[in-house]
# Entry
Amino acid sequence: MTQTDSHDPSKTLIREEPWTIQDTADLYRLDEWGMGYFVAGESGNLMVRPDDRIDHRIDLFEVVQGLEERGIRSPVTIGFPDLLRRRIEEMVEAFTEAMQRNEYTGGYSGVYPIKVNQQRFLVEQVEAIGRDLNFGLEVGSKPELLAVMGLTVDSPDRLIVCNGFKEERYLRHVMLATKLGRNIVAVIENLHELEILLSVFKDSGTRPKIGIRLKLESHGSGRWRHSTGEKAKFGLSIAGVLRVVKQLEAAGMLDCLVLLHCHMGSQISDIQVVNAGLAELTRVYAELCRLGAGMRYIDVGGGLGVDYDGSQTNSEFSTNYGLREYAETVVYRVMTGCDEAEVPHPTIVTEAGRALVSHHCVLVCDVLGAHRVDQWTMSADEAREALAAIPDPPRALDEVVDALSSVREDRLLASYHDAVQAREEALTLFRVGLLDLEMRALVDRLFWSACLEIDRLSRDLDPLPEELLELAHSLSDTYFCNLSVFQSLPDSWAIDQVFPIMPIHRLGEEPFRRATLVDITCDSDGKIDRFVDFENDVAPTLPLHEIRENEPYYLGIFLTGAYQETLGDLHNLFGDTNLVHIIMDGEGGWEIQQIVEGDTVSQVLGYLQYEPRALFQAIRRDCERSMRAGRLTVAEGRVLLEAYEAGLTGYTYLE
# Structure
């Protein structure tokens, strides 16, 4: 069976069988990065599975339609608290099973570092879910500490780990939390912090719980591999650790040293890095026990990675291990290190944040339109007819027509060079006034027609010349998306992070188009041109469907629950998106648990010290002047003022 894209003569595919929903899942690697949390439904819509029950599925496209009916428009971030619960339970289960298999006698306590996503509702969800799972929280600043102190009033036994640089006020908050009965550990990052802590607690009548962050010698892997080692930002060297021990011993507080912490790196892609780091960490832990410290916790830090591209490799966008292998490695390495040193097994603490919350959020945006090169194509015969209608055409036009006519399989690269050269000569004539605008437009149509034919004929070449690879990218569509990369996907812009992106509907149709995505900011960097690829780790274009007139087309951007919206900026004053939390109802359907409306224009103006009411009054005065001058009628002035006021209270994105 032959399927041809009727909208694009350059794309012809030969298939033995009709396109299926599973073909779409394979194309986007859905089954790999989706991990069973996201699946292609028989309806052709993308489904969310918040738990492992087969009949519990939420139709994401149906959710978006329901939100639109309620006036909650895209872009919208959709969170699934049930999926968050599932991730936390899977984390605890993985460590529990690993400890049982290895006869590990210590405990496990995960802590969620709220810097990963400080949204109040999310942190409250983690706190609530973790009450029965011995799951705590980690903070890295005074604001985060104050927030967590307030959230844990009813659960004071939960472990709170305090990281980050600390001054006296930060440590006084730690003292207050200790007096309030919180199970809180202040992690020493440098020797100066220890001096302040000893001073703060000296006359408090309270003994603190103290941790040390160790600066590992072993190096990480992936993008953040340099965040460990001698030049690491945080932590103490071995000499520094010994200095802390001596100072605590002199103060009669060595028993207060209960936790050893390290940072192996973020998004660790290779399990061998975890192996090496744990060997070093456990050895130091055992030595601290030997020196008489009151050690109880070994904190392996964060770094548990997310398989963004579904390749299950040690690429920087993936991991060559899973959650259970990670838990097994941590438990086994800590156990064997402690057994060799004959010290008790400690409580293992993990600070996984990215791996806990990435999956529970999806950013959905609508596609506003597309720019397509092939909309202006013409055949060689049509080109000759157009040329014949031009009296005394410049030779450059003949050469562009000849370049299109001469495209053949046995000279594709040469044909491309001919087309480029002919176009350059024509553009030179245009710049000096020897080619008019109509001729210039004809040159572009002929050039891109030749390029599309070259691209079509080159698809079976192996290897494909580098110039033709770049040509294929140049011929891709540009899809305009209603979002700000800088606000909702800052990692895509700042560090070239790859996120899984795919349509959330029409999954039973073959996506014939290939496109890059651009946002609605006035910035050339507001684009996405790195995508999960079926064959390679990263592709420059994304397969998408043809946009149908008067029919919405929605894209889902997945695994965005960590480090995105809270890191975003206000480029072009596009603010926070609408945020909606969706849960399963008791009848196998879904319901809205909470809606947090995105920023209004007034709110983002206020962030930059504009006064919206003053702006409105200025426009009102301007309208009055225009009405007196006869440029506006009273009715027109009223409509203008109403529109301006509505704009101030409206969504910052396109409505």
